[in-house]
Design brief:
The protein has helices at 16-27, 41-52, 64-69, 84-91, 99-106, 121-135, 168-171, 198-206, 225-232, 267-272, 278-294, 299-307, 335-343, 368-371, 385-392, 405-415, 437-451, and strands at residues 8-12, 31-36, 56-59, 72-75, 95-96, 112-116, 139-143, 161-165, 181-184, 217-221, 237-241, 251-253, 256-259, 262-266, 316-321, 324-328, 351-355, 375-380, 398-401, 421-424. It has 3 domains: 4-97, NAD(P)-binding Rossmann-like Domain (Rossmann fold), CATH 3.40.50; 101-307, Mur-like, catalytic domain (UDP-N-acetylmuramoyl-L-alanine:D-glutamate ligase, 3-Layer(aba) Sandwich), CATH 3.40.1190.10; 316-451, Mur ligase, C-terminal domain (Protein-Tyrosine Phosphatase, Chain A), CATH 3.90.190. It has 17 helices and 20 strands. The longest helix has 17 residues, at 278-294.
C-alpha cells in the first residue's frame, strides 16, 4: 500500500466501522471521502462530525465522481459485493481494501488472534477476552463484535494482543493482513443472499490463512468437513479440535477437554456453567487451542467458566411462566445455528420452536432430523414462513403462521405444559420486520415480560 498521506481513500458506508476508518485515515494525513446510500439520524450525526473534520461526505446516493476520484475504496462490512461503488471500482481497476487490512498496516502490534466461523464467533471472542483478563495478558477485543479494529488503534501498543472477530465480509478484501493465530469454528450455509453461491462464501473464509507463515497457527473444527479440508491443505502449524472423535488434537478424554496430556477443563465444569450445547463446547475447545499456543495456564479457562455470561440473544433464558421456559436465541440467523440449538435439548418432545424472518435462500431440510422427538409445534413468522412450511411439511410437526411474538407467547401458555420450552431460534435474518437480531430478541423478551 502506498504512503497513506499520498493516497485518496473513499470509504463506503457510514456505520461505526466506516466512521472510524474515515477519522483514522484523516488523522494519518490521507485525503478522505465517504459515500453512504442511506440517510437517518445516526448517519446524519456521523456525517456532521466528519464534515467538521474536513471530510467530504455524501448520503442518500453513490456518485461515480467519488469513486473516480479515489485511489483506494474501503467498503464497510456488509456492503454488498455488487454495491455500485464496489462495481465501479472494479471496472476502473481501483484497489479495494478491507478496514481490517488498513488497521493491520496502522497497528503497532501484529499479535493478532483472528476468529471467524458461520456461528459462535462472538461467544468465542468474548470468552477468549475473559480468559486473557484472568491470565493478566494485555489485550484488546474488537472487530465484528462491535468496536472496530481501526477504532481501537490508539489503545494498542507493541505488547497488546488483538483478539479480533472477523466476518467473511471483512476477509473479502484483505491483501497483507495476517494473524498469528487464525480460528475457523465452523462453515455452514449462510449469507447466500450476499454471495452468489456457498463456495464463494467458503473461499472468503479461507482468505483468513492467505498470508500465514510456517510458525503461525490455524485452529479448525475437525468435525466440519469444510474446515477439515481447509486445514489439510495448509502449510502452517495447525491444530484440530473435535467433540465427536478421538484425534491428535483437542478432544474429549476421560471427561476432560485435553491435548498433549494437558487438561483444560472438565465436562462437569462446562455443565455447571451458563453455556449449553455441543456447539459451545466446541467454541471452548478452540479457546483451549489459543491457551495452549500462547502458554497460558489452563486454569484460566476453568476460572472464566465460573463467571462467563454468554452474549445476549444466544440461548438466553428469558423467564419461566407456569413452568414453561422462554429462550431467546435470536442470533440463530441460519439453519445450522437452529440445528445446534435444538441439539442442546434432550428428545422430550417439549419445544415450541419459532422460525422465520427474512429469507436468506438457505434450505431448511437439514432441520428435519433435529425436529423429531424434540419439537411439538413450530410457529412461523415473517417473510420466509411459507417456504419454511413447504420444506418442513413432511416432518410431521404441526406448524402455524403467526403475526407477532405476542401471539406466540399467548398460544404457548394456553397449549404448553410445565417443562416445555418456547425457543426463538429463527434460522433467518431479522430485516423483514426488525432492524437487527438484537431488536428481534428484545421484542420477544418484551412479549414474555408483558405476560408476566
Amino acid at each position: 500500500m502506498k504512503e497513506i498521506e499520498r493516497t485518496k481513500f473513499l470509504v463506503v458506508g457510514l456505520g461505526e466501522t466506516g466512521f472510524d476508518a474515515a477519522l483514522a485515515l484523516k488523522k494519518h494525513g490521507a485525503d478522505v471521502k465517504v459515500t453512504e446510500i442511506k440517510e437517518g439520524s445516526g448517519i446524519i450525526e456521523r456525517k456532521k462530525k466528519l464534515q467538521d473534520s474536513g471530510i467530504a461526505v455524501e448520503t442518500g446516493k453513490h456518485s461515480p465522481d467519488f469513486v473516480e476520484w479515489a485511489d483506494v475504496v474501503i467498503p464497510s462490512p456488509g456492503v454488498p459485493l455488487d454495491a455500485l461503488p464496489v462495481e465501479w471500482a472494479k471496472k476502473r481497476n481501483i484497489k479495494i481494501l478491507s478496514e481490517i487490512e488498513l488497521a493491520y498496516h496502522l497497528s503497532s502490534s501484529k499479535k493478532i488472534i483472528a476468529i471467524t466461523g458461520t456461528n459462535g464467533k462472538t461467544t468465542t471472542v468474548s470468552f477468549t477476552d475473559l480468559v486473557f483478563k484472568k491470565a493478566g495478558i494485555p489485550h484488546i477485543t474488537c472487530g465484528n463484535i462491535g468496536n472496530s479494529f481501526i477504532g481501537e488503534l490508539d489503545n494498542i501498543n507493541d505488547n497488546t494482543w488483538i483478539i479480533l472477530e472477523v466476518s467473511s465480509f471483512q476477509l473479502e478484501y484483505i491483501e497483507d493482513f495476517r494473524a498469528s493465530i487464525g480460528v475457523i469454528l465452523n462453515i455452514t450455509d449462510d449469507h447466500l443472499d450476499y454471495y452468489k453461491d456457498f463456495y464463494q462464501y467458503v473461499e472468503a473464509k479461507k482468505k483468513l490463512f492467505t498470508n500465514f507463515r510456517q510458525d503461525d497457527l490455524a485452529i479448525l473444527n475437525f468435525d466440519n468437513p469444510w474446515c477439515k479440508n481447509i486445514g489439510e491443505r495448509l502449510k502452517c502449524r495447525k491444530l484440530f479440535f473435535s467433540s465427536k472423535n478421538k484425534i491428535d488434537g483437542i478432544c474429549i478424554s476421560d471427561g476432560f477437554i485435553s491435548y498433549n496430556n494437558k487438561k483444560f477443563f472438565s465436562l462437569e465444569e462446562f455443565e455447571k456453567s451458563k453455556l449449553m450445547g455441543i456447539h459451545n463446547l466446541e467454541n471452548l475447545m478452540a479457546v483451549a487451542g489459543i491457551v495452549d499456543f500462547i502458554e497460558i495456564k489452563s486454569k484460566a479457562i476453568s476460572e472464566a467458566l465460573l463467571e462467563f455470561v454468554p452474549p445476549k440473544h444466544r440461548l438466553e433464558k428469558v423467564a419461566t411462566i407456569n413452568g414453561i421456559t422462554f429462550i431467546d436465541d435470536s442470533k440463530a440467523t441460519n439453519v445450522d445455528a437452529v440445528c445446534r440449538a435444538l441439539e442442546s435439548f434432550p428428545q422430550n418432545n417439549n419445544i415450541f420452536l419459532i422460525l422465520g424472518g427474512k429469507d436468506k435462500n438457505i434450505s431448511f431440510q437439514p432441520l428435519k432430523k433435529f425436529l423429531t422427538g424434540r419439537v411439538k409445534k413450530i410457529f412461523l413468522i415473517g417473510e420466509a414462513s411459507k417456504r419454511i412450511k413447504n420444506e418442513l411439511d413432511s416432518s410431521g410437526v404441526k406448524m402455524v403462521e403467526v403475526k407477532n411474538f405476542d401471539e406466540v407467547v399467548k398460544l404457548s401458555i394456553v397449549e404448553g405444559s410445565p417443562g416445555d420450552f418456547v425457543l426463538l431460534s429463527p434460522g433467518c435474518s431479522s430485516f423483514d420486520m426488525f432492524s437487527s437480531y438484537a431488536e428481534r430478541g428484545d421484542v420477544f423478551k418484551n412479549s414474555v415480560k408483558n405476560l408476566l
